[in-house]
Amino acid sequence: LRAEMGNMERLSLVGQMAASITHEIRNPMAVVRGFIQLMKQKSPDHLDDYYKIVMEELDRANSIINDFLSLAQNRIVEKERIHLHDLINTISPLLQADANLRGQEIMLKLQECVPELLLNPKEIKQLLLNLARNAMEAMDEKGSLIIETRYEGQGVDLIVKDNGPGIPKATLDKLFEPFFTTKTKGTGLGLPLCLSIVERHNGTIRVESEEGQGTTFIVSFRTEDTLQAMLQPQAI
Ligand code: ADP
Ligand code: MG
User: Fold this and answer.
1) Mutation test of ligand 1: which of 126, 133, 144, 181 has the most ligand atoms closer than 8 Å to its C-beta?
2) Is the backbone of residue 148 left (phi > 0), alpha (psi -120 to 50) or beta?
3) Which ligand is nearest to the CA of 184?
4) Structure-model confidence comparison of residues 66 and 14, the more confident one
5) Separation of 42 CA from ligand 1 center, angstroms?
6) How far apart are CA 50 and CA 48, in angstroms?
7) Interface TM-score (ipTM) > 0.95
8) Is the pLDDT of residue 74 over 70?
9) Which protein residues touch ligand 1 with a CB less than 6 Å away?
């Protein structure tokens, strides 16, 4: 797609991105400025609250910049033959700790005999973290998150499933748009980043959601031999 774009189109895309990022960074900056002014005026007993808000907003600006950078540099990443389950097992204690604090539970359903895949470990961990965090943020206590793998000959599916509130039909289309968020502290860059990671791995990501039932994100990776067959020049 990028190659097909003309110069004007590319420039206007850059312009649009610049406009959105400017807007997104200005918001937390305005909040920080406002609260620092208040810190000077009000009685010191409010200071703790203001300090907390200022720190949170600065962190948010920082995450926006970090996520945006990873999104903007559509770089070629190094991949290695690695087992998806190894990555899931590295991340799961982290998620488990988070879930405990929220009173939620996490279940792993890892299918046996899943083959190794060509993956960039850092990116896939990020992908899993983003999907799992979204699920946990959507659920209340007693929510349960299932991380599942399935091997079906053609490839391996990584499935992140929650029993949260689900996503309204009208919103489903917007999920992967940069800066789309329904959270007061969201960046709206988590899913766009997931999409770009999956694309760099020649995979696909889709979402199934039913309001009141929950949401399932399904990432499909192709196994190495399917990938090789895909990349082979066609015989004439
Ligand atoms: P952020 O998490 O910063 O809002 P994301 O790009 O990660 O940004 O997600 C965009 C939006 O998609 C969220 O604000 C939320 O409305 C919706 N969403 C993502 N995952 C889920 C989920 N598992 N359940 C319900 N809504 C979700
Ligand atoms: Mg998110």
Assistant:
1) 181
2) beta
3) 1
4) 66
5) 36
6) 6
7) yes
8) no
9) 130, 134-135, 138, 162, 164, 167, 175, 180-183, 186-191, 215
Quote the ligand 2 centre to 8 CA distance (angstroms).
31
Please give, one letter per residue, the 3-state secondary structure of 55-116. HHHHHHHHHHHHHHHHHHCCCCCCCEEECHHHHHHHHHHHHHHHHHHHCCEEEEEECCCCCC
Q: Is 210 helix (H, G, I), strand (E, B) or coil?
A: strand
Residue 82 neighbours by CB under 8 Å, 6+ apart:
116, 117, 118, 119, 121
Ligand 2 center–CA 220 separation, angstroms: 20
Total-model pTM: 0.82
Helices (H) and strands (E) in the chain, counts: 7, 7
pLDDT of 154 reads 85
How many residues comprise the chain?
236
